[in-house]
């Protein structure tokens, strides 16, 4: 570990020590999304004139000879585009849209169920096909807070680029993020990311520094292109240590008549001496070589390590929780220590190329996973071999189709087709994927099983209509899921496999309307209809609705931009999944109805020059409804009225 810390410090010094030299590189402009929808980038203008100073150093200037280093000279790109031969570079974000969505659950569009605080365990509300059809660890409660290798941004900068984000949430829910990147020369960029979470308990904290979640994470990345342009390398390293002091939820008045569900800081909670930890390290490498023009070979290497740990002192008051919800003590009666390690090694080799508007790809992939637990014995080794490929066609910027296939020998597969046009986007996915390692084999102090589950099958159809009018943008959608052999955690917190199929029909609507010049109204809503013998295994609210009404304008001759408004979110009554910290899994329950409750927030986003600030007052309608508050998970309340502030400060020189 000392070597890794030394390497990080060394690279940090290299980043700050190198001089930056200008370079010229062509750009493929890409259009961004209209205002009101999450945007990945915006249209890039042509490069300004580059002039050379004495001594060979170059400066980027406009016609007025002013320095114009900024978002248009600090671009990033993604590996998934490089792999598909898409030349796309995106400006770093300085937009105000959704800026007040700073915490991960909010960034998802409130499409996750958590435990009411930043850094707590979280799961998606809606079912989706897993990206990995082979065996995964099964411990995904903290995926939302991890910068995975496949989401890493690589940069091309004309000057050193630094992005500092600091968010101070009410109740001491604090996040700090730092991004740095610079080009060593026109073909080589290097950078790093740092992020921390310090979230004080919202339920029964003993003091300001009584943290629910503490995270320290960092990553490093580099991109390099040879002088003749034939060889390209992308590499990154990620590390996260995420520690949570579990609380088990509010003690039900059924067990303690003095306990109140909406006492917040004075609430009685089950656990005070139980800790969960998720520690991850990833090494990732992608490189390709162009043998002849339009035809490349490539190689992908991944090495992953995940160490999941849960400890509890059963000689303390925490014992009451386990006596009620997890009565067996299979290993020790005075303490619980559940530790699970998951290691993965992956190599993928393939070739790809372009034939006019067609892109093609074929690959062979080998994956070795090792699952280890002190309570199981010898590590279990799983070897997987995949073959697959892709065909994609692009006709202009607005028409394309994709067809991709992946086959895991001899028992799993994934087929996907996608069609995109100016009026319609449609996809079909058919997959047969393996249950997680944790669902197949687990041994802890309170649970134990060894299962021989069949693979899970799914058919998914998605369609989105695109209607763009002068002052209105509408996106009706429809998602159809058929899932069989679904594996889930039942009311006894046991991994089980459904015997019947489930059908999920989800129509939706997303819109953005310009009501009057600078006044905007946006919203999205989804209705879920469940049917089939396995329908009850999916605890999805019938209605999920988000909306926003805001005013946006520029002031003081364009030096100040402001967004100010109200937004609301709503989920209908549902028996939302409960969370078991001992196994770090959500499981179904039939005793607690997370009742419908509209939450209204006030927000103010402002940009002065390139610096953005936010103010958000959460839950302004508290004590205005029939209930004094709301729940996001059984016995975990949502935020009370709190004020959040934040600042994002980019530096381009």
Give the gist of this structure.
With 653 residues, this protein is mainly beta. Helices cover 6% and strands 52% of the residues. Mean pLDDT is 90; it is low at 1-65.
Helix and strand topology:
Elements: H1 2-17, E1 50-52, E2 58-60, E3 74-78, H2 79-83, E4 90-91, H3 104-107, E5 112-113, E6 123-124, E7 153-157, E8 161-169, E9 173-185, E10 188-200, E11 211-225, E12 231-245, E13 274-292, E14 295-313, H4 319-325, E15 335-355, E16 358-373, E17 380-395, E18 399-409, E19 412-420, E20 424-433, H5 437-440, E21 441-443, E22 448-450, E23 456-465, E24 467-469, E25 472-484, E26 487-489, E27 495-497, E28 502-516, E29 519-527, E30 529-531, E31 543-555, E32 560-571, E33 578-580, E34 585-587, E35 599-608, E36 611-618, E37 631-633, E38 636-637, E39 642-651
Antiparallel strand pairs: 1-2, 3-4, 3-7, 5-6, 8-9, 8-39, 9-10, 10-11, 11-12, 12-13, 13-14, 14-15, 15-16, 16-17, 17-18, 18-19, 19-20, 20-23, 21-22, 23-25, 24-25, 25-28, 26-27, 28-29, 28-30, 29-31, 31-32, 32-35, 33-34, 35-36, 36-39, 37-38
């Amino acid at each position: 570990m000392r070597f890794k810390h030394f390497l990080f410090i060394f690279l940090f010094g290299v980043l700050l020590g190198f001089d930056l030299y200008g370079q010229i590189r062509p750009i493929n402009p890409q259009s961004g999304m209209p205002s009101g929808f999450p945007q990945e980038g915006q249209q890039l203008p042509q490069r300004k004139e580059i002039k050379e100073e004495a001594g060979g150093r170059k400066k980027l200037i406009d016609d007025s000879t002013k320095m114009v280093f900024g978002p248009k000279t600090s671009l990033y790109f993604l590996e998934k585009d490089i792999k598909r031969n898409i030349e796309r570079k995106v400006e770093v974000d300085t937009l105000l849209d959704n800026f007040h969505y700073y915490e991960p659950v909010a960034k998802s569009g409130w499409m996750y169920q958590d435990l009411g605080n930043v850094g707590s365990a979280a799961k998606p509300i809606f079912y989706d096909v897993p990206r990995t059809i082979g065996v995964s660890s099964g411990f995904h409660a903290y995926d939302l807070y991890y910068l995975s290798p496949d989401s890493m941004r690589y940069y091309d900068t004309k000057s050193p680029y630094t992005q500092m984000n600091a968010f101070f949430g009410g109740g001491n829910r604090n996040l700090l993020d730092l991004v740095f990147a610079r080009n060593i020369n026109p073909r080589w960029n290097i950078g790093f990311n740092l992020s921390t979470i310090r979230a004080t308990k919202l339920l029964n904290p003993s003091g300001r520094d009584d943290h629910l979640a503490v995270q320290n994470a960092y990553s490093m990345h580099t991109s390099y292109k040879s002088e003749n342009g034939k060889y390209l390398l992308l590499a990154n390293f990620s590390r996260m240590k995420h520690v949570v002091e579990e609380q088990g939820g509010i003690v039900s008045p059924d067990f303690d008549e003095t306990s109140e569900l909406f006492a917040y800081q004075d609430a009685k909670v089950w656990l005070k001496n139980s800790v969960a930890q998720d520690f991850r390290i990833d090494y990732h490498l992608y490189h390709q070589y162009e043998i002849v023009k339009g035809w490349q070979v490539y190689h992908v290497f991944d090495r992953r390590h995940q160490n999941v740990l849960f400890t509890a002192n059963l000689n303390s008051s925490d014992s009451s929780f386990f006596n009620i919800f997890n009565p067996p003590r299979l290993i020790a009666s005075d303490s619980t220590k559940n530790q699970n390690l998951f290691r993965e090694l992956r190599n993928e080799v393939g070739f790809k190329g372009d034939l006019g508007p067609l892109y093609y790809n074929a690959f062979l992939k080998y994956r070795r996973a090792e699952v280890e637990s002190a309570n199981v014995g010898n590590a279990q080794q799983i070897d997987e071999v995949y073959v697959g490929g892709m065909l994609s066609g692009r006709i202009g910027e607005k028409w394309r189709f994709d067809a991709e296939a992946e086959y895991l020998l001899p028992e799993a597969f994934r087929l996907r087709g996608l069609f995109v046009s100016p009026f319609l986007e449609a996809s079909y996915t058919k997959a047969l994927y393996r249950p997680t390692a944790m669902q197949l084999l687990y041994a802890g102090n309170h649970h134990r099983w060894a299962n021989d589950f069949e693979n899970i099958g799914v058919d998914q159809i998605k369609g989105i209509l695109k209607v763009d009018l002068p002052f209105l943008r509408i996106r009706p959608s429809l998602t159809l899921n058929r899932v069989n052999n679904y594996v889930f955690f039942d009311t006894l917190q046991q991994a089980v496999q459904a015997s019947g199929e489930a059908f999920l029909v989800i129509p939706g609507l997303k819109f953005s309307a310009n009501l009057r010049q600078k006044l905007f109204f946006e919203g999205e809503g989804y209705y879920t209809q469940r049917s089939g013998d396995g329908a009850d295994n999916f605890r999805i609210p019938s209605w999920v609705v988000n909306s926003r009404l805001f005013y946006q304008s520029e002031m003081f001759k364009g030096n100040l931009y402001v967004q100010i408004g109200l937004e609301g979110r709503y989920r209908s009554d549902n028996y939302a999944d409960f969370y078991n910290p001992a196994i770090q899994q959500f499981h179904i329950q039939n005793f607690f109805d997370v009742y419908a409750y509209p939450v209204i927030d006030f927000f103010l986003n402002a940009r002065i020059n390139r610096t953005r600030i936010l103010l958000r007052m959460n839950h302004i309608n508290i004590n205005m409804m029939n209930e004094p508050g709301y729940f996001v998970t059984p016995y975990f309340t949502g935020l009370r009225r709190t004020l959040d502030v934040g600042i994002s400060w980019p530096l381009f020189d």
